[in-house]
Design a protein that fits this description.
This protein is α+β, with helices and mostly antiparallel strands. The protein has one domain. The chain contains five helices and five strands; from the N terminus they run βαααββαβαβ. The chain has a five-stranded antiparallel β-sheet with strand order 3-1-2-5-4, with helices on both faces. The longest helix is centred in the middle third of the chain and has 26 residues. It is globular, with a radius of gyration of 18 Å. The chain starts with a strand and ends in a 12-residue tail after the last strand. The structure holds iron/sulfur cluster (SF4).
């Protein structure tokens, strides 16, 4: 399998986005049902009020990184009837990456991975680069705040010391996700980025995966998508 990254962005007033897409009462129960709830410092419940932490910003940039599965080891196209690279509003990023070359230290033994494991590894590889660039952008725009595309995987095997009552080992690089702060990520992806999230069926390879991040700031960032591509 190979994949290609396509970047989709939307720039909104932060107040408008919060008014239309934040509903903590609706989404918190989903977090409460997750084993990470209360066991990861990036996840709810928080020792502070998230609404206060994200208040007062002028803009929010949304960034959707669409991971389009473009082929199999045998070169058979897998994107049928769905938008791919070149989608209006999308910014194609990077070259096609063979799956077995997509992970640090990976070799040919990555070929033939089950679909679920392959997807997890691709998501981790893309998230790592994405989070790094969002944190770099925060430094460039003092006072801004990134919201990551999912929970934290900063500790080995996804085990967070919060489960043992221990503090975060690197709080400076942890950012909660849009969903953890009560935002409707599926609605944002479909209505603002125009790429609906897909939920693959058991054992089925999805046509694409999607990571949605946010960036709160007091000024619009020129060429936002190109900073990640
Ligand atoms: S970096 Fe480690 S300790 Fe901190 S939130 Fe992430 S998993 Fe938990």
């Amino acid at each position: 399998m190979t994949y290609r990254l396509v970047y989709h962005t939307a720039l909104l007033s932060a107040d408008e986005y919060m008014g239309r897409y934040r509903d903590a009462a609706r989404f918190l129960p989903l977090c409460e049902a997750c084993p990470r709830y209360g066991n990861c410092w990036a996840c709810p419940p928080y020792e502070y009020d998230p609404a206060e932490r994200i208040a007062g910003y002028r803009y929010i940039h949304l960034l959707g990184v669409q991971i389009v599965v473009t082929g199999s080891d045998g070169g058979v196209a897998n994107v049928s009837g769905r938008p791919g690279p070149g989608i209006p509003g999308g910014v194609p990023g990077g070259a096609e990456v063979p799956a077995w070359k997509a992970f640090p230290g990976a070799g040919d033994d990555q070929k033939g991975l089950p679909a679920g494991e392959w997807a997890e590894r691709v998501l981790a590889a893309v998230r790592s680069r994405l989070d790094f660039r969002l944190l770099a952008l925060e430094r460039q725009y003092p006072g801004s705040r990134a919201l990551f595309a999912g929970t934290c995987s900063g500790c080995p095997a996804g085990v967070c010391p919060r489960a043992c009552g221990e503090p975060c080992i690197r709080p400076e690089s942890v950012r909660p996700s849009l969903e953890a702060y009560g935002f409707d990520v599926a609605g944002s992806a479909a209505e603002l980025l125009h790429v609906p999230l897909l939920w693959p069926e058991e054992g089925q390879r999805p046509d694409y995966l999607m990571l949605v991040s946010g960036f709160l700031s007091d000024s619009a960032v020129p060429g936002f998508a190109a900073r990640f591509a």
